[in-house]
């Protein structure tokens, strides 16, 4: 009797759960269609609009990416791969020994040890140098040009770094995937998904992860440093794409698509493809996939809604037919109750399951056709709501180039949380990406404390808030008094006072103070001489440093204005973008004594376009002056975030090294203004010369120049003669 009662109770409970599920099924579909799908759809559409690339172009880029990545690539012999792996391991050990020797040297110097200790240290350093040379010889013995004929003719260091990065990323990917799988194993019981792992196994897994994690961080740091170095030594017109850096924070690495991309080790035909090097195109392709998935989900929900309505109609017809054929009062009562239930469900479903217009048919046509330099189209409105009760979808933010003033938000690389990792150099994250990414609390990882460690003490001096840049596209008003009208005349007069020695010797630029001496190679100087050649970072650094040295001479009328300026290298911004360690960034920036300067001059190189731009940072005014000889707007969306990342790192490093810098990164928003609104360059190769013109104008206390494009060839000739008046490097 009790068993029958339990069975009856279970039947009633199952029937209740079934009815509740049927009743709420329409609400679930309505919620998916009117809340979840439009939210992701609008976010993806906003990103495509901000990227400024049409959907047609994005699909063509995706097809090119698909073709390139699924094609069969020739692989080197297993012996070469194995020896490359050994070289990477050997270099890691050499670097560990180098760090140990440096720490030992400092300890001996502090204790004022005997001469025998210093002699022993020198012997160890000599042995270490020989070991490094043997590692290089081992690499040369691999005869890589035979296995990679496409890389023939490229500099040895470039090829070596590229192939080492290829093997290094494979190792990073293997270790990272293993770490992520162990995280999943540790989190198997989160939210009741599976049974717990067990105390002993859990502790053993945590201990193994804690031992393996520093090695993974070291590999990522090494890979990012290789990215920065490869950017510096890339030959002109080399079409081998530079790999993108990996996040140093493992929680971000887990969802980063770059982790699963192989290193491109062959030159690409027709230049570097945009899907590989242009962040806007990459973001647009990802958003395009989201749009496609939203469209598929919308069609699936539409088919499901049609099937549900068809099922409820069939059930109602069957019940009506059953009531007509049976006269049993008890059965008739049950059928009547079931018919009332189906009637309530039917009326509710018909209100909830209205079929809206397909998502992709509602895309704003401006997203599919607009010119490259026009403002990106506004994102589309949400799909039509299924009922009047459906909540409206909030309108998206306007795209960057379409408004006269746009707020750009970014996450600063300084964290005031003592649980953040010292490797957690920030990435460039847009507000949409922050909203779309799940928070740590949602993931509920049980090993978060293993993924992040304590910050340095000085890191707590700044907060990691959102740093805002208010961009006004009204061109900066320049009067004739703030325009440099005599640069070419003064430079020509200076050149005539010194002999111009035309030989193939490297030139030396000696700078005052603690600034390092710069050596300009003749091959780089030849780029300045050629009237149709693009300048690289080496010649840009050399010429700008020579102009700085000229302006800072005691007899110069512009010495005072030049002393107010901190001239950054073309590679400083790259180091920040590639998450270089603080030690490397400080080593490059410290000689400029930027914390004492009121103007920071930052050259910007856009690798995808092979184009140079310039940013003038007015420190006390918290203002960015943007110069682009092509007067483009869209690329500044990413560049301004990178510049603010650089400013934040510079502020942090100044505070950490005991220098006061009156900057508030969490206070009033920064502003940015373009220095020109009309393009001054019509060709594709003089952008570097225009950057030199603006650098010279700022060093001379001006905000512009009266030089026109027909004068650029003569200016190239004058700058070449100016560099040839410098002393030659002694052999």
UniProtKB/TrEMBL annotation:
PROSITE patterns: ULP_PROTEASE. Residues 370-403 are annotated as: Disordered. Residues 87-114 form a coiled coil. SUPFAM superfamilies: Cysteine proteinases. GO terms for biological process: proteolysis. Pfam families: Peptidase_C48. Residues 518-698 form the Ubiquitin-like protease family profile domain. Keywords: Coiled coil, Hydrolase, Protease. InterPro entries: Papain-like_cys_pep_sf, Peptidase_C48_C. GO terms for molecular function: cysteine-type peptidase activity; ubiquitin-like protein peptidase activity. Gene3D superfamilies: Adenoviral Proteinase, Chain A (3.40.395.10). Residues 377-395 have a biased composition (Pro residues). Belongs to the peptidase C48 family. This is Ubiquitin-like protease family profile domain-containing protein.
